[in-house]
Specification:
5 helices, disordered C terminus, disordered N terminus
Length: about 130
């Protein structure tokens, strides 16, 4: 009798552990804890822009450091002003305006129009949006 209770308890613990591990694996897949660096994220973003906006090599080479700087500054703003939403929003809007101004020097009017139509500016995250 004691042996069957112990076996049943062990089986329940094993099932519960497997369930918890499966749930944690799902969470890690949805929200990975290892995030890309701004440099890696900038490269991915610039490649995406190249595909969507049909950038040439010169445009790619000019936008890559611009995206890297923008994402680094965005991360810094989000950390610095994390408790002051109004200031953070104003600083992000200023950063996005600077980014758009720089893009207008690099992209054609058609590409700039596509940029505005395809991307939204990130407000509080370092996602891959553009302004």
């Amino acid at each position: 009798m004691l042996k069957s209770i112990t076996l049943t308890a062990a089986l329940i613990v094993a099932c519960a552990t497997a369930s918890v591990r499966a749930q944690m694996a799902d969470r890690l897949t949805e929200h990975p804890t290892v995030q890309q660096s701004p440099a890696e994220e900038a490269l991915a973003l610039t490649r995406e822009m190249t595909n969507r906006l049909h950038l040439n090599e010169g445009q790619f080479l000019k936008l890559l450091p611009l995206n890297r700087t923008r994402l680094t500054e965005l991360t810094s703003l989000n950390l610095t002003y994390r408790s002051d939403e109004a200031t953070r929003a104003a600083k992000v809007a200023e950063l996005e305006a600077q980014f758009e101004q720089e893009c207008s020097r690099i992209l054609t009017p058609s590409q700039l129009s596509q940029l505005h139509n395809n991307y939204q500016a990130p407000a509080t995250t370092t996602g891959n949006g553009l302004g």
